[in-house]
């Protein structure tokens, strides 16, 4: 009973294959699928080739509009002569989003001869090219001009091209808003200039390549390289950058501080697998605008100076240093995950507590310990210096080994007050940890954290069905301790 226009709208929001299943509902749904605006083909053999050709000819003859055309070819000699035909039909029928990929198991890239004709399509807004060869195109012909005035997104994945071709594509498409280039072959340098509307750039390289971006309108930049190669990135004219992600790169001393200091509107920064080239610590220099910070698996100790953070996500081997003029207020999101490799001591727990103290509360803290060892607390005055104990919503502790160390549990719970504690360990360690907490709760012995413990509840959760069960430590389980503090 639905009108045809509504059926078309429904089908336009789901995939081509999923839409085909709805053809059994009625003739109206069948007819709507026959004119589906989004086409997605993965061509493997002659059977698929014949079917796709029939569909494309029907769309051409009936002038059925095409909004999205996704064509993936898996090496087949019979289809090569039809690729240009199918692409031409899609362009003639007003395609808005075009994706073309060619996979040859012999490692041969498909020479795309009509890329400038594709760019000339007035309806085209997004173009994705995968595993194509653009080196054979002639750049001396007169048709190379600003044909891509309508294009807004350009993505090149595994494409073979040289520096001249890249510059030609950029010149041809001056109005693009989003540009991605990933694992392309043949480039010696990536240079992006004179892009008047560019907002987002994503670059993934497989070898050491200088990258220069001169784009005052750029707001979002993603750069992924090789950790063993030094970063050669120049974004001097990108003063309006709002988000920056650096992944798998080696940086020299002061580069990170230099980048963050020049971007006065930077709100989001992500550092993933960053290797410091020199001996100095990696520094996120003073930034009043920075709100979201994520640091994952970076070498060395990271110094963070950003007093207006709202979200902090840190994963690493060392406790970072927070340098702020004031302690944080409650963060909207905060996550800390540490993989301890050094010898755990009372000094380590002091550093952890000091780090957590910079915020009133933390969402998640995850600690990985290679073993449970004895902590020397004989000459330790835990109340000296810092009186308030940081609050943690969820504390996840991963322990290897089953050594009974009450001082370890005391130091751990002195470092923070978790509302929920998830312990991952052997059944012996879980049982011991539970019994120790119960003992300390009911004990009158003075303890750095015991005097604030109000209640303790222990539940076991089966990872398969997540149902509460009685606490029986017959095997390795996930145990949740619900702790309530005064």
Give a verbal description of the structure.
The protein is 23% helix and 30% strand. The protein has 486 residues and is an alpha/beta fold. It has a domain at 344-485. It has a 19-stranded mixed beta sheet. A 3-stranded parallel beta sheet has the order 9-11-13. A 3-stranded parallel beta sheet has the order 16-18-20. The termini are far apart. The relative contact order is 0.04. Mean pLDDT is 78; it is low at 464-479. It comes from Nicotiana sylvestris (Wood tobacco). Residues 65-233 form the At1g61320/AtMIF1 LRR domain. Residues 239-315 form the F-box/LRR-repeat protein 15/At3g58940/PEG3-like LRR domain. Pfam families: F-box, LRR_At1g61320_AtMIF1, LRR_At5g56370.
Inertia-based shape: elongated
Strand content: 25-35%
Distance between the termini: 62 Å
Characterize the largest beta sheet: strand count, sense, and whether it forms a barrel: 19 strands, mixed
What class would the helix/strand composition place it in?
Answer: alpha/beta
In DSSP terms (H or I, runs of 4 or more residues), the helix count works out at: 11
Mean pLDDT score: 78
Number of strands: 27
- Rg for CA atoms: 29 Å
Q: In which range does the helix fraction lie?
A: 10-25%
- Low-pLDDT runs of 5+ residues are 464-479
Protein name: F-box protein At5g03100-like
Domain F-box: 2-38
Pfam families: F-box, LRR_At1g61320_AtMIF1, LRR_At5g56370
Domain F-box/LRR-repeat protein 15/At3g58940/PEG3-like LRR: 239-315
């Amino acid at each position: 009973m639905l009108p045809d226009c509504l059926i078309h709208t429904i089908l336009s929001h789901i995939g081509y294959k999923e839409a085909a299943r709805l053809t059994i509902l009625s003739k109206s749904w069948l007819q709507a699928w026959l004119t589906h605006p989004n086409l997605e083909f993965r061509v493997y053999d002659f059977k698929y080739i014949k079917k796709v050709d029939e569909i494309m000819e029907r769309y051409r003859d009936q002038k059925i509009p095409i909004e999205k055309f996704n064509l993936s070819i898996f090496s087949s000699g019979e289809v090569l002569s039809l690729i240009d035909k199918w692409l031409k039909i899609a362009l003639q029928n007003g395609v808005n989003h075009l994706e073309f990929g060619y996979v040859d198991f012999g490692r041969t890239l498909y020479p795309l001869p009509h890329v400038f004709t594709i760019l000339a399509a007035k309806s085209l807004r997004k173009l994705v090219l995968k595993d194509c060869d653009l080196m054979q195109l002639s750049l001396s012909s007169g048709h190379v001009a600003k044909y891509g005035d309508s294009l807004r997104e350009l993505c090149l994945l595994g494409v073979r091209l040289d520096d001249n071709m890249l510059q030609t594509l950029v010149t041809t498409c001056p109005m693009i808003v989003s540009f991605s280039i990933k694992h392309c072959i043949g480039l010696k340098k990536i240079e992006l200039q004179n892009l008047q509307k560019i907002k987002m750039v994503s670059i993934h390289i497989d070898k050491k390549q200088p990258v220069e971006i001169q784009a005052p309108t750029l707001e979002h930049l993603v750069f992924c390289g090789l950790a063993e190669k030094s970063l050669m990135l120049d974004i001097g004219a990108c003063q309006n950058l709002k988000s920056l992600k650096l992944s798998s790169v080696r940086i020299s001393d002061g580069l990170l501080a230099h980048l963050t200091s020049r971007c006065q509107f930077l709100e989001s920064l992500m550092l993933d697998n960053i290797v410091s080239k020199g001996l100095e610590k990696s520094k996120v220099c003073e930034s009043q605008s920075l709100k979201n910070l994520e640091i994952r698996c970076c070498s060395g100790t990271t110094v963070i100076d950003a007093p207006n953070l709202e979200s902090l996500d840190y994963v690493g081997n060392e406790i970072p240093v927070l340098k702020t003029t004031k302690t944080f207020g409650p963060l909207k999101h905060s996550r800390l995950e540490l993989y301890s490799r050094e010898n755990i001591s009372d000094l380590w727990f002091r550093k952890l507590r000091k780090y957590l103290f910079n915020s009133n509360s933390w969402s998640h803290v995850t600690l990985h310990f290679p073993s449970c060892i004895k902590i020397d607390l004989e000459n330790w005055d835990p109340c000296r210096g810092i009186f308030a104990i940081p609050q943690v919503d969820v504390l996840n502790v991963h322990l290897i080994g089953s050594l009974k160390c009450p001082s370890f549990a005391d130091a751990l719970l002195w470092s923070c007050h978790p509302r929920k504690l998830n312990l991952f360990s052997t059944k012996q360690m879980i049982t011991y940890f539970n019994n120790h907490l119960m003992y300390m709760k009911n004990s009158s012995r003075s303890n750095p954290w015991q005097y604030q413990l109000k209640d303790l509840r222990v539940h076991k959760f089966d990872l398969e069905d997540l149902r509460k069960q009685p606490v029986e430590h017959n095997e390795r389980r996930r145990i949740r301790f619900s702790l309530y503090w005064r």
